[in-house]
Design brief:
This protein has 16 helices and 8 strands. It is an alpha/beta fold.
Length: 351
C-alpha cells in the first residue's frame, strides 16, 4: 500500500471534512452522497444560497436529485472558498462551459497537496481543451503544481445514489495519483478502475454524448435497434479515430470510459443527451427542448467544440458532422440520416 493510499484509509476514519464537491446538480450530489456514505466529511458547493438552504432544511437535493436522503456528513455551502479551503480532494462537477471560471475561483485557496478530480464530461468550446487540460493550464498560470485526475464511465446519478452496482474508471498522469482517487471513491457498490490515459478517458466521456444525441434522433424517428447498434458501433470508431490521433491508447475505448459509457448514454432512459436527440427526431426545435430542461445536456455544446477539434486534427467524423448540422444549422433529421447512409462505400476498418 502506497503512502497516499495509507493516508486515504486514515482520512476515511476521520470525522474531519476532507473533500469538497463543487457543483450541486444531480451528478455532483450523487458523488457527494457516495463519498459521505463512505464515511467522509463532504462540503457540497452550490452557487445559490436558496439552494443551499433547501438542502440544509430538507436533507435532500429536491431540485436535482429528489428522493435520496443526505447524511449529516454532507454539508452544503454557498461560499466556494470555505468549501475548498484545507481539503485533500476537490471534485469538480460543474458544466464544461463554466468549468474554467469556477476553477479559477478555487485556485487561491487550493491546498498545495490537494488532488482535483474532474467529473465533468465535455470539451471547452473556446480552447478545445478537456477539463484536465483546463485545470493544468490554470494551475500553471497560478504557479501551482497540483495533481489532477478525472472520473468517467457508465454512471447515471440516480442509480449511483440508489446504490445500484456501478463500475467506473479514474485516470491521472501517474498511477499513484489514480490509485489515490480510486481509494477515495471505491465502495462495495461503486467499483473503481485506474488508468493513466487521461486524454483517452476524457475524449471518450465527452464524445459519447454526441453519439447519444444521434441515437436519440434515431429513436425519435422511429428507427429500430439495428440503427441504434450501428450508430453505437460507428460512433465508437469515430471517437477512437480522434483519440488515437491525439495520443490516446486505442484500448481505452473498449473499456468503461469508452464503450461502457457510450452504450449507457445511447440506450438509457436517464440519458439527457439521448432525450435531446429523441425530441429532435420527433420534430421539436432545439431551443424549446433546452428551455424545458433544468439540467445541462453536455452533448449540445460539446458538438461545437468536437467539430472544431476534428477539423483541427483532420479526422473524419461523419456522425459528428451530421449532428453538428442538425444542432447548429437546423438540418432536417431525415436528411441527415440519408446523407450518412449514402456516403461512399468503405472498408469497415478503414481509417
Amino acid at each position: 500500500m502506497t503512502k497516499k493510499m495509507e493516508k486515504m484509509e486514515t482520512m476515511k476514519q476521520s470525522p474531519d471534512f476532507s473533500v469538497a464537491v463543487i457543483g450541486a446538480g444531480s451528478w455532483g450530489t450523487a458523488l457527494a452522497k457516495l463519498l459521505s456514505d463512505n464515511g467522509l466529511g463532504v462540503h457540497l458547493w452550490a452557487h445559490r444560497q436558496e439552494h443551499v438552504r433547501q438542502i440544509l432544511d430538507e436533507k435532500e437535493n429536491r431540485s436535482y436529485l429528489p428522493g435520496f436522503p443526505l447524511c449529516d456528513r454532507l454539508v452544503p455551502l454557498a461560499d466556494i472558498h470555505e468549501a475548498v479551503r484545507g481539503k485533500a480532494f476537490v471534485v469538480m462537477v460543474v458544466p464544461s462551459h463554466v468549468f474554467r471560471s469556477v476553477f479559477q475561483q478555487i485556485i487561491p485557496v487550493l491546498d498545495d497537496n490537494a488532488i482535483v478530480v474532474s467529473a465533468t464530461k465535455g470539451i471547452e468550446n473556446e480552447s478545445l481543451m478537456t477539463m484536465s487540460q483546463v485545470m493544468e493550464e490554470e494551475l500553471g498560470k497560478a504557479g501551482k503544481k497540483g495533481e489532477v485526475g478525472v472520473l468517467t464511465g457508465p454512471s447515471f446519478a440516480k442509480e449511483v445514489a440508489a446504490g445500484i452496482p456501478t463500475a467506473v474508471t479514474v485516470a491521472a498522469r501517474t498511477m499513484e495519483t489514480a490509485e489515490s482517487i480510486q481509494g477515495l471513491f471505491f465502495s462495495e457498490r461503486f467499483r473503481v478502475y485506474t488508468s493513466i490515459d487521461l486524454i483517452g478517458q476524457e475524449l471518450g466521456a465527452a464524445l459519447k454524448n454526441i453519439i447519444a444525441v444521434a441515437a436519440g434522433i434515431s429513436d425519435g424517428l422511429g428507427y429500430g435497434t439495428n440503427t441504434r447498434a450501428a450508430l453505437i458501433t460507428r460512433g465508437l470508431a469515430e471517437i477512437t479515430r480522434l483519440g488515437v490521433k491525439m495520443g490516446a491508447n486505442p484500448l481505452t475505448f473498449s473499456g468503461l470510459g469508452g464503450l461502457g459509457d457510450l452504450v449507457l448514454t445511447c440506450t438509457g432512459d436517464l440519458s439527457r443527451n439521448r432525450a435531446v436527440g429523441l425530441k429532435l427526431g420527433q420534430g421539436k426545435k432545439l431551443a424549446d427542448i433546452l428551455a424545458e430542461m433544468n439540467m445541462v445536456a453536455e452533448g449540445v455544446k460539446t458538438t461545437h467544440s468536437a467539430m472544431a477539434l476534428a477539423e483541427k486534427q483532420h479526422v473524419d467524423m461523419p456522425i459528428l458532422d451530421q449532428i453538428y448540422q442538425v444542432i447548429y444549422e437546423d438540418k432536417d433529421c431525415q436528411e441527415a440520416v440519408h446523407d450518412l447512409l449514402t456516403r461512399h462505400q468503405k472498408e469497415e476498418m478503414e481509417y
